[in-house]
Design a protein that fits this description.
The protein has a domain of 73 residues: Ybab, Chain: A (2-Layer Sandwich), CATH 3.30.1310. The chain is 47% helix and 16% strand. It has two helices and three strands; from the N terminus they run H-E-E-E-H. A three-stranded antiparallel β-sheet has the order 1-2-3. The protein is rod-shaped and about 70 Å long. Keywords: Coiled coil, Cytoplasm, DNA-binding. Homodimer. This is Nucleoid-associated protein QQ020_19815. It holds the Pfam family YbaB_DNA_bd.
């Protein structure tokens, strides 16, 4: 028989675990690079740019468009990597609390 109180307790526990995991995301740092490492962007698990490293050889007059493209590529890659890592961390924090139902992705709820 379905136990509503038990289910509500599990939901509350899951919410607490998710909040803890979301706070921990700010401590995660993901670095991605472009241009063979000439531009490196670091984002946290909340997808915020926290560091940008540009090789001095790129800072030349006339190279602005190339530099812009490399920065965009590095930042976008870091954000993609951060998103994947954040999903993994949320999944780990709710493992055993929220059932794994095939075809149901609860990641978007958090």
């Amino acid at each position: 028989m379905f136990d509503m109180m038990k289910m509500m307790g599990k939901i509350k526990e899951a919410q607490e675990k998710i909040q803890e995991a979301q706070k921990a995301l700010t401590k995660l740092e993901i670095t991605a690079e472009s241009g063979a490492g000439m531009v490196k962007a670091t984002v946290n698990g909340k997808k915020q740019l926290i560091d940008l490293d540009i090789d001095n050889s790129l800072v030349k007059p006339g190279d602005e468009d190339m530099l812009k493209d490399l920065i965009i590529a590095a930042v976008n890659k870091a954000i993609e990597d951060a998103d994947e890592l954040a999903k993994e961390e949320i999944k780990k924090s709710t493992e055993g609390i929220i059932p794994n139902i095939p075809g149901m992705n609860l990641g978007g709820l958090f």
